[in-house]
Amino acid sequence: MVEPKTEEEIALLRENAILVSKTLAEVGKAVAPGVTTKELNRVAETFIRDNGAVPSFLGFEGFPAAICTSVNDVVVHGFPSDYVLKEGDIVTADIGTLYKGYNGDSAYTFPVGEIDANTRKLLDVTKASLYKGIEAAVEGNRVGDIGHAVQTYVESFGFSVVRELEGHGIGKGMHENPGVPNFGKRGKGAKLINGMTICIEPMVNAGNKSVYLDRNGWAVHTSDRRNSAHYELTVVVRKGHAEQLSTFDYIEKDGKIKF
Ligand code: MG
Ligand code: MG
Q1: CA of 175 to the centre of ligand 1 (A)
Q2: Does 259 reside within a domain?
Q3: Tens digits of per-residue pLDDT, 198-239?
Q4: Is residue 66 helix, strand or coil?
Q5: What spacing in Å lies between the alpha carbon of 48 and ligand 2's midpoint?
Q6: How far is the CA of 133 from the centre of ligand 1 (A)?
Q7: N or C: which end of the chain has fewer CB within 10 A?
Q8: What is the rounded CA–CA span in Å between residue 19 and residue 51?
Q9: Torsion, Cα of 25, 174, 73, 127 (10° steps)
Q10: In this structure, what CATH number is given to the domain that contains residue 213?
C-alpha cells in the first residue's frame, strides 16, 4: 500500500519539479553540434547548485556525474564524457534534484541540429506516449492502465517499449513505490490514489525492445544499436485529471527547440 503525499509534501515536490524543468531547459540551450556531454553536465550542475539544490544523481549508487547524458543508442544512464555531439545525434538529459529533503526527476531527449525524419518521429511519439500515460494517471485507475496507454500508443507506430526500466513513485526517496512500467494490462497493478506522486518515463526504441548493459555497469544500450528516446515528468494522481508538477514548457516555449 502506497501512502499518498500531503499537500505540504506535494508543494516541496513541486519546487523540485520546477527546478528540474528549468535545469532541463538550460541544458537544452547548450545542446549543439560541437558540444561535449560533459559540458551539458557542467551546465546542469552549476544551475542546480546556484539554486541551492543538490544534483541527486551524483554519487547515487556510485553514479559518477550530476546528470545522465544518453546519446543515440543509449537508452538511459549514459555518463557525461568528452564525446562531442554532432549534427543528427539525439541526446537525453535525465536530471535529478534534492531540495528541502524532497526529489525532482525529469528527462528530455534533445535533437542535435537537424535530425532525420524517423528519429524526429521517434522523439514525437515517445513524448506523446508520456502524455497518454499521464492521462491514465487518475484516481481509480491502476498502474497497468498507465503502462497500457503508453505501450499501445508506441507500438501503433512500430516502435518498441523497453521492459527492463520503469517509472516510479517519488518523494523523500528518489525512487519510491509503486513501480510504473511502460507496458501492461488495463486494470492490473497498484491502485492509483489521489495524492500519489509518480514519475512516468517511457523509454522507446526505434527498433526492437531488446537492450543490454554496458561494461561500465550503467549505460543501457539498444541491442540493435538503433536510437532510443526517453521523456519523463512527475505528476500527482488526482481525481479526473493528473496534475503535472514538472513541465517541458521552459524548453519548448523559448523557441529554440522546434515542435
Ligand atoms: Mg529520471
Ligand atoms: Mg525517474
Answers
A1: 10
A2: no
A3: 999 999 999 999 999 999 999 999 999 999 999 999 999 999
A4: coil
A5: 17
A6: 16
A7: N
A8: 8
A9: -50
A10: 3.90.230.10
User: 199 C-alpha vs ligand 2 centroid, how far in Å?
Assistant: 6
C-alpha 201 to ligand 1 mean position (Å) = 7
In a domain, 15, yes or no: yes
Count up the domains in the chain and report the number: 1
89: CB partners within 8 A, 6+ apart:
33, 71, 72, 112, 115
pLDDT confidence tier of residue 2, bands split at 50, 70 and 90: confident
Ligand found nearest the CA of 230: 1
Range of the domain at 57: 7-252
The whole-model pTM stands at: 0.97
CA of 252 to the centre of ligand 1 (A): 19
Give per-residue pLDDT as tens, 50-71.
999 999 999 999 999 999 999 9
